[in-house]
Amino acid sequence: MTDKLDLVLERTIDAPVELVWKAYTDPEHLKQWFAPRPYQITECELDLQPGGIFRIRMVGPDNFDTGHGVPGCVLEVVENRKLSWTSALGPGYRPNEAGEGCESFPMTAIVTFEDDGNGKTAYKAVALHKSEADRLTHEQMGFHDGWGTVAGQLEEYAATLRANA
Question: Hey, which of 55-59, 101-105, 110-114 has the most confident mean pLDDT?
Fold first, then answer.
């Protein structure tokens, strides 16, 4: 990873790894927190195997709608530890066409989850880009604010899973 090409977000989430993983990898749970409010995820497909689909549809104010979303490709799954996917490839590792907005540049996400003790999770999200221009575009689109907001929402949602366990 390099400062010139990658964006990184790290948080300590006040929930155990197993619940954070569950919130992140179950499509019905993911829909509850993955978009910064007042935006919503109305559709989510996630096939947790290498080559599987990762697709979301986000809608929000002012008629914002990603449509059915360009499907990404799951690259790696290590239960309760790591999930990575890319927008550069679609399901089955097929090359993707670029979309619009957030989907206008290829990106690979690597998200890791580690037990931080006392029922907390060390959460790290890394967005890898092919060029400095793509990294800058993603940063200016609000990577840190957006991904930071949803990390907070992930923590809130994981707490509800703990309360209902």
Answer: 110-114
Helical (H) or strand (E) element with 157: helix 143-163
Q: Give all strands (DSSP E) within the chain, no chain letters.
A: 6-13, 40-46, 53-60, 64-65, 72-78, 82-86, 89-90, 94-95, 107-117, 120-129
Give the predicted TM-score (pTM) of the model.
0.92
Contact between residue 24 and residue 18 where contact means Cβ atoms under 8 Å apart: no
What b-and-e string marks burial along 107-130, b requiring 16 or more CB atoms within 10 Å of the CB?
bbbbbbbeeeeeebbbbbbbbbbe
CATH number for the region 6-163 comes to 3.30.530.20
